[in-house]
Design goal:
Blueprint lengths: L1 H67 L11 E7 L5 E10 L6 E10 L2 E12 L1 H4 L2 E3 L3 E4 L3 E3 L18 E5 L2 E4 L5 E2 L1 E5 L3 E3 L5 E2 L3 E3 L3 E2 L5 E3 L7 E2 L23 E5 L6 E3 L8 H6 L13 E7 L6 E6 L7 E6 L3 E6 L3 E7 L1 E7 L3 E9 L10 E7 L3 E3 L3 E10 L7 E4 L13 E12 L2 E3 L3 E7 L15 E9 L1
Parallel strand pairs: 5-8, 5-31, 6-9, 7-10, 7-33, 8-11, 9-12, 10-13, 11-14, 13-17, 14-18, 18-19, 20-24, 23-25, 24-26, 25-27, 26-28, 27-29, 28-30, 29-31, 30-32, 31-33
Antiparallel strand pairs: 1-2, 2-3, 3-4, 4-34, 15-16, 20-21, 21-22
Length: about 475
């Protein structure tokens, strides 16, 4: 009986060992299976991350390509194919392809990047916004001081919002001064924001900034109390919106916080804007992309009238022998997007159909109205223009309507870059002129001498931010990325 019991216990022990071994085997198999699944899942996730990183590399490669000549306004939209890239061991692991589109040559570029790693494909879409100091400011003046005389009006009231300026700062008219803005006259009105590195001075209660001011001389102490608002004199400042900071932390925004007065800093930030710089004209670029090659080979004075061709999307350039604009020597048909580069001086007038930039290695003299087809004042997808003078822009007509981007670099280093002192015959004329209507943006490296016009209105054309003429330098900024 004892022997039988021992035998039964040995059997039970053996069964227990077998059962435990089987259980351990099952647990081990399950653990191994889960580990295998997790490892495979991790590998798949690593591959997905690698393909995402590759697609991001495609976006960055496209951004680099766009940036190469963006300072000239040329956007390289050639597709990019990267047939293979390797890991650290030199083994081929994947590829990416990038397509770049520039819809309507507006203010943004679309990048589509597709990358494949170990058979896993990820697709990214990026939007690159194009920003230019030549198209976003009503006035950009690079001078120690910029003066405004009597009755100057900058921008237009929108007739809806308080003080006539938009609540969205990105939609407002802006003026930028690398020095100071001196309001020496009365009845000066700016419908938008003023940015001045050297501060804003002068003016009386008849003059007003209907918007905000940003000044580099703006300072406040550690308690948030404004000790210098960057504005001296009696000029009024205010946009009418309750959108300012409680700087001193007393729970209310009031006069102690200096509403509508802000800081201009090196890099921008909360309640500030960043300082700006300009890039000089690249004459070699305009010469290389000139649509009338003979104008860029020898130094000469050209007398040019721009005429829209009925029923087409292009402009004809008619060349005359002299400033009387009577004897034609040649005519040229431009493509819908064109650059006309003159090596020397250019006397111009007429209307623009399409997108046309006129660049001169010296001066540009505006002797008659220069605007868009049928007297259109503002740019659109089919019309935009720029007058780019390496030295000066002369406003010579007794009364003028001028549209587009107006740029005077003042390479001769005289004090004046925009001048109205001369008549249409090029003779000095100290007498006052009738009126000047500018519909666009002025970029002035030097001072402006346009006060000879009794009646001056400087209208801002925000469409030039979106529909720039060719050859306008831009800064690309990758702002939005999404997986598609």
């Amino acid at each position: 009986m004892i022997l039988s019991m021992l035998r039964n216990q040995k059997g039970i022990a053996l069964i227990t060992v077998y059962a435990t071994s089987a259980f351990i085997t099952v647990i081990s198999a399950a653990a191994f299976g889960r580990a295998f699944w997790e490892r495979r899942h991790v590998d798949q996730e690593i591959t997905r991350l690698e393909s995402m990183a590759a697609a991001e590399a495609g976006l960055q490669r496209a951004l680099f390509q766009i940036s190469q000549n963006a300072y000239t306004g040329f956007i390289n939209t050639a597709d990019i194919a990267w047939p293979s890239f390797t890991d650290v061991n030199g083994i081929n692991v994947g590829n990416f392809d990038v397509t770049i589109s520039y819809p309507n040559q507006a203010d943004w570029v679309v990048i589509q990047a597709a990358a494949t790693v170990d058979g896993v494909t990820r697709n990214l879409e990026g939007r690159v916004f194009l920003d230019s100091n030549l198209s976003k400011y009503l006035v950009y003046a690079d001078a120690s001081s910029f003066g405004s005389g009597n009755n100057a009006q900058y921008g237009d009231s929108n007739g809806v919002d308080p003080e006539g300026v938009d609540s969205n700062p990105d939609e407002r008219t802006m003026m930028y001064f690398t020095g100071g803005w001196s309001v020496s006259g009365s009845n000066v009105h700016m419908y938008g924001d003023v940015l001045a590195e050297g501060g804003i001075s002068g003016g009386d209660a008849s003059s007003q900034v209907h918007g905000d001011t940003y000044s580099q001389t703006f300072t406040q102490n550690g308690l948030g109390n404004v000790t210098d608002d960057g504005v001296s004199g009696s000029i009024l400042v205010g946009d009418g919106f309750a959108d300012d900071n409680d700087r001193n932390g007393d729970g209310v925004v009031n006069a102690n916080d200096k509403p509508d007065y802000h800081d201009l800093t090196d890099d921008g930030g909360d309640d500030t804007k960043a300082k700006e710089t300009l890039t000089d004209m690249d004459l070699a670029f305009y010469q290389a992309h000139n649509n009338i090659s003979s104008f860029g080979t020898t130094t000469a004075t050209r007398y040019l009238e721009f005429q829209p061709v009925a029923g087409t999307n292009y402009t004809r350039v008619v060349q005359y022998t002299n400033g009387t604009f009577t004897t034609v020597t040649a005519s040229y048909n431009l493509p819908s997007s064109a650059i006309v580069y003159v090596k020397g001086d250019a006397y111009i007038k007429g209307e623009i159909q399409g997108r046309v930039s006129i660049a001169a290695s010296d001066d540009i003299m505006i002797v008659g109205d220069f605007r868009y087809t049928d007297g259109q004042d503002l740019a659109d997808a089919s019309h935009s223009t720029a007058l780019l003078a390496k030295d000066k822009l002369y406003f010579m007509g007794n009364s003028l309507n001028v549209s587009g981007i107006l740029y005077g670099e003042n390479s001769s280093n005289s004090s004046v870059a925009f001048d109205a002192y001369y008549d249409v015959n090029g003779q000095a004329d100290p007498n006052s002129k009738e009126y000047l209507r500018l519909h666009g943006n002025r970029i002035i490296k030097g001072s402006s001498n346009l006060s000879y016009y009794d009646d001056r209105v400087y209208g801002y054309d925000k469409n030039l931010k979106y529909y720039r003429p060719p050859g306008i330098p831009v800064v690309p900024d990758l702002r939005t990325v999404r997986e598609v």
